[in-house]
Design brief:
Layout: E1 7-13, E2 15-16, E3 28-29, H1 37-54, E4 61-68, H2 76-89, E5 92-102, H3 109-118, E6 122-128, H4 132-137, H5 144-156, E7 162-168, H6 175-187, E8 192-197, H7 205-208, H8 216-232, E9 236-239, E10 242-244, H9 251-257, E11 261-265, E12 270-273, E13 276-280, H10 284-290, E14 297-302, H11 305-316, E15 323-324, H12 325-332, H13 342-349, E16 352-354, E17 358-361, H14 363-367, H15 369-374
Parallel strand pairs: 1-4, 1-11, 2-3, 4-5, 5-6, 6-7, 7-8
Antiparallel strand pairs: 8-10, 9-10, 12-13, 13-14, 15-17, 16-17
Length: 376
């Protein structure tokens, strides 16, 4: 059965033109320096070979996600080398979804065409806002005009599957401004929208010097009104912050949410195969030196049976559809009794609902997901 389950590949490209004050990802501002693209790409290929040799029964890759950082700082030739190696070592399924994150201030029309020719068939464009004042507050290097132009360039390059990232509850943002952002994004007619609330993550510049964020009541009003706008425009919410046209859900992210296996290569990348989580070392220079050996692994952890229930639910309950009992059993190797007594408690207060074979969060449960998970 494991051989039939999806296998994803996450590739982390850790550099950005500048580090955004809200970002807690493993990303490093260039500050005028150059990327060692050949050295880092060679390291990724060694890392892929290491992963191939570590898997007892390799299977084909059904989705690839180039994340960062800003992957669009890398040339199409480098992206093509990684995809070719993945295909040679594992095999890409004929319908593999291949996503690349792009920032409007670090992309151009020629590169978009090059990525498409390299095999990328889905773009995720980090817009965040269409308000220039809010973009400056967020430390973004692009303007609203540049963001809209980048979207048009991606269409011209042949991309018919594009996601736009937008945030809400930005510093001093009101309801009208947030909905104007969302309306502008909807107006571009992307296939997918990731619309999520700005949060102050530990270790970020915003956490050290918190900006004035909207009151909780304002954030809730934005979320409720925005959900209605998205639904009216034909975008179906399928995950806490993900909305898609029919048939355009992000297959790679569903790999995480369904607790399926995925490889992770690159500085700071995480992967999970066969209940084993593996994390790479975070510093790019150290990663380049160690890639292809066990020294590149900063952490390896086997997910013990007593931990699998919560780890599964932390992902699966983000999906509106929830999960089936056979999915839970196949993904964790555990029986339904592992969900007790937390399941009974959630059903009794109405945060989860169950049919014969299906368990999913209610609207109340989606709003208070942390509380639901605490019950397990």
């Amino acid at each position: 059965m494991a051989a039939e389950r999806p296998l994803g590949l996450y590739v982390h490209l850790p550099w950005c033109v500048a580090k955004c004050p809200y970002c807690d990802f493993n990303s490093h501002g260039l500050n005028g320096r150059r990327i060692d693209e050949p050295g880092y790409t060679d390291a990724l290929l060694r890392d892929l070979r290491f992963e191939r040799d570590a898997i007892a029964s390799p299977r084909r890759i059904s989705s690839v996600f180039f994340g960062g950082g800003t992957p669009s700082l890398f040339s199409p030739a480098a992206i093509a080398r990684v995809l070719q190696a993945a295909d040679e070592l594992f095999g890409l399924t004929p319908d593999a979804e291949i996503t690349l994150e792009a920032n409007p201030g670090a992309s151009d029309a020629e590169r978009f065409a090059g990525y498409r020719a390299a095999g990328v068939n889905r773009l995720s464009i980090g817009v965040q806002s269409f308000d220039d004042a809010h973009l400056r507050r967020l430390g973004r290097i692009h303007s609203a005009e540049v963001a809209a132009r980048a979207f048009g360039q991606a269409r011209t390059a042949g991309f018919d599957n594009i996601n736009i990232d937008l945030m809400f509850a930005l510093p001093e943002q009101d309801l009208e401004q947030a909905l104007a952002d969302l309306d502008r994004g909807i107006g571009l007619a992307p296939e997918h929208l990731s619309w999520y609330q700005l949060t102050l993550e530990p270790g970020t510049a915003f956490a050290r010097r918190p900006p004035p964020l909207p009151a909780e009541d304002t954030a809730i009003a934005i979320w409720e009104a925005g959900q209605a706008r998205l639904a009216d425009a034909g975008y179906l919410q399928y995950e806490v912050s993900a909305y898609a046209r029919p048939g355009r859900q992000c297959r790679h992210n569903r790999t995480y949410w369904c607790f399926d296996d995925y490889l992770g290569v690159g500085a700071g990348a995480h992967g999970m195969v066969g209940w084993q989580r593996r994390a790479r070392i975070r510093r790019p220079g150290a990663y380049i030196a160690a890639a292809g050996t066990a020294d590149a692994l900063e952490q390896t952890r086997y997910i013990e049976p007593q931990d699998r229930t919560l780890e599964f639910l932390m992902n699966a309950l983000r999906l509106n559809e929830g999960f089936t009992i056979p999915q839970f059993e196949a993904a964790t190797g555990l029986g339904l009794q592992a969900l007790q007594p937390g399941l009974d408690a959630a059903l009794s207060v109405g945060t989860l609902e169950r049919t014969a074979q299906h368990i999913r969060p209610t609207e109340l449960g989606r709003r208070h997901l942390d509380t639901v998970l605490a019950g397990f």
